[in-house]
Amino acid sequence: MQLVLDTEQRQLRSTVRELLADHGNVRSVVDGAERYDRALWKQLGELGLTGLVVPEDRGGAGAGHVERAVVLEELGRALSPVPFFPSAVLAVDALQALGDTEVLPALAAGEKIGALAVSGDDGSWGTVPVTATERDGGWALDGHAPFVLSGDIADVVVVHTAQGWFVTEDAERTPLSTLDPTRGQAKLTFTGSRARKLDTADPPGVLGAVRDRAAVALAAEQVGGIAKVLEITVEYAKVRVQFGRAIGSYQAVKHACADLYSTSERAESLLRHAAWVADHEPAELPLAAATTQVFTGPAYFEAARSGLQLHGGIGYTWEHDAHLYYKRAKSSELLFGGQDEQLARLAGLLAEDS
Amino acid sequence: MSGEFRDAVRSWLADNVPGDEELETAKRFQAALCDAGLAGLTWPEEYGGRGLSADEQQIFDQEAARYDLPTSVFRIGMGMCGPTILDLGTHEQKSRHIPPLLRGEEIWCQLFSEPGAGSDVASLQTRAVRDGDEWVINGQKVWTTVAHLADFGALLARTDPDVPKHQGLTMFLIDMHDPAVTVRPLKDMTGRAPFNEVYFENLRLPADAVLGQVGQGWLAAVTMLGHERVSIGGFVRKRRDPLAHANLAETARRYGRDRDPVVRAELAKLYAAERALALFNTRLRQEAEAGSPPGARGSVAKLAGALLGQQAVGVASTIGGPRVAAWDPDDPAGAELALAINQIPSSSIAGGTDQIQRNIIGDRILGLPREPVVDRDVPFRDLRVGTQRTA
């Protein structure tokens, strides 16, 4: 196993970091002017990053999960308001697992935005309450998907119903109010929506495969977020002076920073392993992915909470970015149905293992 | 080549690892290990080592991790004193001490901590006074692991109280069998006595007992503590450790608690934390192989390991409930778990407390400003040291 990035992977990291530093603008979205950063999304597509793990013959770059994790870490650090995770991870992975060749190239190229409808009313991953009916040689969908990440801006939606997987461009989008202002969610309503069926022998198996890869991808965002929180907090502790000393010289602050560092290093280690496993030992991926989410989900929220606290009053302002990490961390922790479900899933895998 | 080496290590260990950890067994095992060319892998051949690379050491460690080797009594010699003598010793010191250390013929202890000098080792009070060509040592050490079995010790003592505390120290190599050295076992909170108090009453040392330079004892101590961090950070939890996830999961099954959702959730969290630390250690090793040594990042492994132990105590309590507090005297599992729980506080204290590890991470890795120092430029004799109560 290889847990240290090689030269090319580090090069990819600095390229993406520079791109996001020059062109990312989280505030245009946070302050409500835009729903996502269109210019940045376009650039990510042009650089081939939206199709990183898609094979070259399907319009992708043919790279691995280790590389995609590097990109996601940077997007997570910068809180870049682009639909990379919903489209270039969730929708792309689902279409790839389903063997689709019609829509995948456009998503891989970043020309269209995809979304994945798999969260039920309780947030758990499974099927959405949608019925599919055969009509005029095609299919029609009726029902709703309550929580769809980037559902407000998606061109294409991949829907998991009790009758299997469907892809549609026809849905009524009702944007939800979200805790995290950098990533939209919508309720999608389907009323006789024309859809195409994506046949597969094992619909729940596809869901499992998508979830494992999504868990690694989300962990990458989380690890990037933790690293950035650590960085801005340590920087602030060095320059903020109270009682005649930089606050970072007080052990109460220094020790909290040390704990942040320890969290950051261990979360990164789990991520590097899970991403490597996704590329090289796919049979081990379910356990590695579940283990990683059990750790990084709560770790990111705790890191963001602690980082905000260490900033004191300035950390509680709208102007400062600390709250954006806090909100992203909490929302991310709840993406696959919350910690109880993560723990039960890992416990189940461990019981199988023994 | 490395495949052959791995096969050789594997088959030798399979044939030679003994079933107990008695002292005589340990010594026989270490001598056999040495005869097989598997001791001191990275140490120079001139002094009985093999002169191999870190790759071979890693292969050996991986293979050895399948066993509980009986070598813990040699850990301070192999992990700390030996490497420091190799770093700073004279040719005579290396020739005299390294070969018998490697063969397990001579056991070493480290004499740093004192009743008044724990985290602040540099404030130690044991005095070394020059008398002609000799040094005369008086004072007391404490928490000295394996001193009761040791043949030699690395002693840090104060040779000059008129300069600031870090500048007046010197390291000596001493014979623990000298009648001027008294070793008294000190019981720890488990009721066992793995460490000792050591008293020096007019212990006379020749000039060539100095390791490194007179007045440069702090440098020697830092060198040795650097080896200690690597040795503790890389320390693999014992396979039989009742607080390891796999063993707690087994305990849960034995007690019929493995279907309880709270037990399952806590075990899952523990597993994730254990994996996070294990993978962090692997990453440190891979980075070291790629040319960037772990340095102060070893403190993260040490700190995280201590916190993992505390977490495991909580999981054990959830699983065992009242059986953790009271058990059938004939049930060895109950006693083993209780011992493990009682040992956990030591991992947050020994080898640098959790608080000191956080200072190291904050100061050396994150570059946070240090606390204002009140004792750096003050002559030692004017300092307040140790535990002082006002009347």
Care to describe what's here?
The complex is a heterodimer of chains A (354) and B (391). Chain A is built from 11 helices and 9 strands. Chain A is an alpha+beta fold and 354 residues long. In chain A, the strands form 2 sheets. In chain A, strands 1, 2, 3, 4, 5, 6 and 7 form a 7-stranded mixed β-sheet that branches. In chain A, a hairpin with a 2-residue loop joins strand 8 and strand 9 (245-246). By secondary structure, chain B is α+β, with helices and mostly antiparallel strands. Chain B folds into 3 domains: 2-107, Orthogonal Bundle (Butyryl-Coa Dehydrogenase, subunit A, domain 1); 109-216, Butyryl-CoA Dehydrogenase, subunit A, domain 2 (Beta Barrel), CATH 2.40.110.10; 234-352, no CATH class. Helix content of chain B is 45%, strand content 14%. Chain B has 12 helices and 8 strands. In chain B, strand 6 and strand 7 (195-206) form a beta hairpin. The interface between A and B is large, with 41 and 41 residues.
